[in-house]
Amino acid sequence: LDQLQPVGYERPMPVVPGFEVEFVNAGHLLGSAYARARIGGHTMLFGGDLGRYSRPVLPDPSPIEAADILLVESTYGDRLHEPDDGGQRLATIVDQTAQRGGKLIIPSFAIGRVEEVLYWLKRLEEARRIPVLPVYVDSPMAAAALRFYTDRISELDPELHRVARDLCIF
User: Is pLDDT above 50 for 2?
Assistant: First the structure.
């Protein structure tokens, strides 16, 4: 690990003469990137998950330029995601559950999803679309991720960055 160095986004690094690599924001998780390599006039993109546009919490992924070769993870490559509904579906479920006096348990994949659910719960409470309710996060990994996000709030979505201190999301 002593040989590793952190690198920022979109900073081309020469590997050997005629071959350079740069990392570009993938918008999937905080700090995620895809690699753009250039060699001999050709461009190759290599990446894992690519984030979605117009999502809360994380900034949009950087646009992908033309490439001669594209190597990507493709779990959702054969479908389109539904557009964001502004928390409407979550608001309906929370409100119905609260009106019945019920408890709402939201299982969430550890990193990324928890932050988004907390974001929407807080935004919906502030907009008075749902009642203010106690929220518990029961996941050491998610709690660690929330601390990570809190420490790097300036790297989050610009809209969230503007309102995060008032909302106390993380």
Answer: yes
